[in-house]
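hi! just following up on the protien thing from before. the input was this:
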Amino acid sequence: MAARAHRVARYRLAVYPHETPGLAHPAPFRNRVQRLESRVQKEAEECFQQALDIARSQNAKSLELRAVMSLSRLWQQQGKKNEAR
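and the predicted 3d structure came back as:
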């Protein structure tokens, strides 16, 4: 969701730089998008952790693997290489 908003904002700035009041410079919007992405990533991490806990409690190995892989990919994207291992 945040990635889509970021793409739309970049497009608007590229196509309509003079018609976008308050967003002539992309820095304020970029900062907002980064805060949103951070919040979304934290929420995603919490969801993956919860899915992992549920899968373990049900002894569902394939679901546990799926949750671990998703969490690992998220951590890799965040630059948390050691946690992702």
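The chain has one domain: 2-84.
The chain has a mean pLDDT of 80.
cheers
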